[in-house]
Amino acid sequence: MPSEEELFASVDALLNEEPHLPPPAERARLREAAGITQARLATALKTTTQSVKNWENGRSEPKSPRLDAYQRLLNGWAAKYPAPGAAPAVSVAATAPRASAEPAASGVETADPPQAPAVPAAALARPATPRPAAASWRPAPKKAAQPAADPRFPHGPLAVLDGDGCAYGADGIVLDCPATTVPELVEWTLHESGLGAPKLNRHGKDSDPLIVLTAAAAVKLGLPECLEGHEQRRSLRLPEEHPVVRQVVKAKWRLTQRGFGPWARIYRKATGTQRQCVQLAILSWDALDERSWPGVAEMEPADIARVLGVYATRVITPRGSTAVSGLELMTALRPPTRATQDPATGNWVPGHNPGSLGTEPMDPAPPEATPEHPAVVDSGWTGGFLNEEAYQWVRDVDLLSDEECTLPFAVGLDLNTAFLAAAARLVVGLSAPDHFRAPTFNPKIPGSWLVDLSHVEVDLRLPSPFTPDGTRPTGPAWYQTHTVAYAQELGYNVAPLEAYLRRESGAYLDPWHDRLKTAYVDTLADLGVTKDLTDAEFLAAMGRHKDADPAMAAVLAAIKATVKGGIGKLRERPQGRKYKEGERWPALQRPTWRPDIRAAVISKARINMHRKLRNMATMTGLYPLAVLSDCVVYPSPGDSPLDFLPYAASGKPQPGAFRLGPTPGLAKLEGVQSMLWAVDLMEQGHNPARHIKGGDAVHDEGE
Description:
The protein has 21 helices and 20 strands. It has 703 residues and is of the alpha+beta class. The strands form five sheets. The chain has a seven-stranded mixed β-sheet. A five-stranded antiparallel β-sheet has the order 10-18-19-11-20. It has a four-stranded antiparallel β-sheet with strand order 13-16-14-15. It is globular and about 75 Å long. The protein starts with a helix and ends with a helix.
């Protein structure tokens, strides 16, 4: 029999393994590597059982300070890996009754389990052993498990309150809300409702509970049913002298700077780590924009709660418009601070969270700013600006061939959440820009480059990859890194004249992309559009998905609006008629006012589009009629994308070209019209991609 020290050494080796069971094929290897055979486990279990019994009976003390750890390992491993032909090992802990996690059977009471003997402190002490990076035998899960419900928020992230005092929760829960004033509603929400959502990052903050008010509930609480004024309704606010605002102030609550509008935040200063904040959304004040939340404001309260609850679970608890929520999601997933220990005092204080944008706003480089930005106005900058925008291009009618004009159909393809696909693994700058003259171009450094790309030859039947309108550059201009790198990819030399570059960089948008991609794919799957469909089945499913479940279709629209709006918010322009050029506007106070990150996303999306256009021309000989952002129109012999997309002999889609599918970056059918219709629009100077769906695509998508 091995000595006790040999067994302890083997146990320590196993304790340093990952605490998950390996697959059966690896068990023998682990036992052999640890030097513990089945016979040793059985012998050690017998010895340990007797030692523990002696300890409980008071006859002797444990022989080793590591007995507790040793016992835990044997309970888990010896019971799970019994020797061949042996009876299953019985856990030492089984000698004491354990409380069941299941409710007691009807009429049967369970006694409290006896307390285990106290374990000496020395028995818990084990020297820290460096553990190699987890590797290998842990099987990859088929699908990420849903997080367990947080016991602090048993009723979900939000509720919709109607005029009868019923608060409808996200999972079909109906709560009784006795509040008759806004301060009472805030108190009830914080202390009785059980509403809220846990933080999305361990360094972040929990989401504040959201109460959505129907028109009847708003009137019951003393609010006007509608806000009236010359401005857009979403921009209106209750005046400070309004009775409800006075009630809030009198109860020692505060409103944020945006006041009491369609999305109001009522709070008190946090005490310790406990936040005291409630969000209100007033439906009759146009809190849910029809373009982002189609049909939701007219739904019944329970259905509204379902739509917003799914969005809150998969994306984030709404904090305003979908654009605001998209921006807030970036911060929630990459909090600006984390707890760090002050070496001088030993106290834990907020410190910079690596990979985040920090807590302080950062002025952009002059070419990355907007013309009205103080950095431009105060410096007198005249060197030009980045023009990294999405495509709005129409091919010259004179470049249409006779063969193209005789094709019967014009078919529009739309890329799923093209900006989201571009955000994947996108390296952006995290530090302030530094100015360089005549630098050597490096495609791995994010920044803005002044370079002449007018010498790059592009087929006139394709848009130029370097300008949003598709025209060829005429001289030096500012470009984002991805645009210049594409010129190199095409085989051309680039010689930047100047550059504003950032020394620190990282994939800031990665968690944002991953969460929204999962939300998008899962919501499409709920509507019957799954990854396992053939291309023909996918087109059929997309044709009927909005009718399958209007509530989930609204969630899908909100997710898409969150992507576009969140990217747009990175360069929010000044609003209001009273603004004067050169003044700082409120958005500039956010660390997330980062026009360079927006430019990087749009540049990559436009380059991705051009690469597919070029590959399509190579594979099929087809050239687009028009491109608008993520939509492209092709002449086609049939009324389906299946009639012109390239497929291999095996039937699989050719990589590099447009492909149909439900994930970000893949394509779906946008619309079909006659070729005559498309040519007529082109001759009038209009973009067929804007109208091929049967309306104004830009307006319909809320851009």
